[in-house]
Amino acid sequence: MIKNIIEFKNVSKHFAEHPVLHDINFEVQNGEFLTLLGPSGCGKTTLLRMISGFEEPNSGSVFIDGKDVQGLPPHLRQVNTVFQSYALFPHMNVFENVAFGLRSRGIGRDEIEQRVNEALRMVKLDSYRHRKPHQLSGGQQQRVAIARAVVNKPLVLLLDEPLSSLDYRLRKNMQIELKQLQQQLGITFIFVTHDQEEALSMSDRVVVMQDGYIEQIGTPREIYEEPNTLQVAKFIGEANIFEANILEANQKQLVIEVEDKQFTLKNRKGFTQDDKICVVIRPEDLQVWGQSEVDDTSNMFPGMVEQVIYKGATVDLMVRLSSGKRLAAAQFFNEDDEKLDYSLGERVWVHWFPGWEVLLRNDA
Ligand SMILES: Nc1ncnc2c1ncn2[C@@H]1O[C@H](COP(=O)(O)OP(=O)(O)OP(=O)(O)O)[C@@H](O)[C@H]1O
Ligand SMILES: [Mg+2]
Hints:
Elements: E1 4-15, E2 18-29, E3 33-37, H1 44-52, E4 59-64, E5 67-68, E6 79-82, H2 94-104, H3 109-122, H4 138-150, E7 156-160, H5 168-185, E8 188-193, H6 196-202, E9 205-210, E10 213-218, H7 220-225, H8 230-235, E11 240-249, E12 253-258, E13 261-266, E14 277-281, E15 286-290, E16 301-310, E17 314-321, E18 326-332, E19 347-352, E20 358-361
Parallel strand pairs: 3-8, 3-9, 6-7, 7-8
Antiparallel strand pairs: 1-2, 1-4, 4-5, 9-10, 11-12, 11-14, 12-13, 14-20, 15-19, 16-17, 16-19, 17-18
The structure holds adenosine-5'-triphosphate and magnesium ion.
């Protein structure tokens, strides 16, 4: 078996002149848990449908297991899909729902028995085999749908927002179960969600999509810590974004002005003085100091605490700078650190850990 189980090469798709996907290129490695993440309408389902064979690209090629699958009908693609609405057959019990695809392919009784049992064990539903769908919870029904898909031993399992109709707690549990199941099966999963937390916590790699383009592909850590574009930075997690003026630029260093203060930073991306850039700082990379706690405030912003939200592991603050800008800052608890009781209206200094910022071209 080859390393890349799925490959997209220069794939574009339009519906009646309306472009939906533009020059899509990416590979999915065998055994990988890859997530497509992006807002509604960005083309996630369309992309999956080109893998499963329910849509064909207008240009470019899709490869499955090294073979160009142009014109290959869905049932010959060794790909199965689990949908948000799991659409089980209501009159069939759990066993028959899972066995359905195998029966229609004419597989023998003993093999069906053995494979369905194995699939049900995998999703921990072996003792529910005689129940009808209406006698199951939403999460159990979704597990039947997953068993029905994996029983065919697909090369790739496509999951199109499979958890979005479940309540919060069930969804969290199913995230863990799905991830375990994927590791157990060793099957490649391509998972679709528009929930960024879900994407970060489950995936080996995430494909961030926007308006039919791939904005970035990377590990959860890469897309969170090193977003390529402002779009990605805004879409993944919370971000404080400052417009910055470049005062001086050479190959090594930048001197920038942010909110009337000057900072000297490494010029890792080779910006020049003419570039328009933004500084992106995550809430957890900001420190908020009380007035009496600091001496040198030359690279700190003055502000006022507007909101204090106790979160257990952190205290989340909203701070209004004197310029009017609002910042989100997450302060971690530390047993030795007494300064965590901020009061509303308190005057503070805000500071970021130099080097933890991300500098991005201002393409907004
Ligand atoms: N069969 C079709 N005919 C015409 N337009 C379509 C068709 N299928 C999808 N589209 C359009 O293509 C775009 C992408 O749709 P798609 O379903 O792939 O988005 P999505 O990212 O899955 O969104 P969601 O998160 O809401 O499921 C949308 O603008 C949609 O209206
Ligand atoms: Mg969709």
